[in-house]
């Protein structure tokens, strides 16, 4: 199992994309694929948890050659992923209004588990490397799961129900007219 930790990490990551990630007030929710696609827009709202994804990707790519750097990147990804727990309000893709975050779904927790598992396994391999053990190489399963992940992302990009219309999201709300005669 220790030799296949990259494949297990990718499998958990892919599994997380099958579930809802965030529950919002007014019966709203965001699917994990939706959060993955729209995460970079978190910069506008000062939400940086999504950036755990590229850090995890870099850590996986560097896991063999630069063990300790991969571990540091993985821990950084874990920190950013945990910072998402502090998010209080997010826009909904149906009403385009900001709703309160009421909870996190299985997609978020499985995503967090995938990052945490990578960090634990990478730390174990860093320790084994100090003892002179050889790091495991890439397996065909790693490549296969990476291809499936890319297919899932392409699918999500082409699925209209997962999209935000950014123009509607950043528009100011319509002004409210007050009837002066009613006052």
Description:
This protein is α+β, with helices and mostly antiparallel strands and 183 residues long. The protein has one domain (2-182). It has helices spanning 5-16, 32-38, 52-62, 67-83, 106-130, 140-158, 166-170; strands spanning 20-24, 28-31, 89-91, 98-104. The chain is elongated.
> N- to C-terminal separation?
72 Å
Assign a percent range to the helix content.
40-55%
Mean pLDDT figure:
83
What overall geometry do the principal axes of the alpha carbons give?
Answer: elongated
Q: Report the major sheet.
A: 4 strands, antiparallel
Q: Could you tell me the number of beta strands?
A: 4
Q: Which band does the percent of strand residues land in?
A: 5-15%
The tally of domains stands at: 1
> Helical segment tally?
7
Low-confidence stretches: none
Which class best fits the helix and strand makeup?
A: alpha+beta
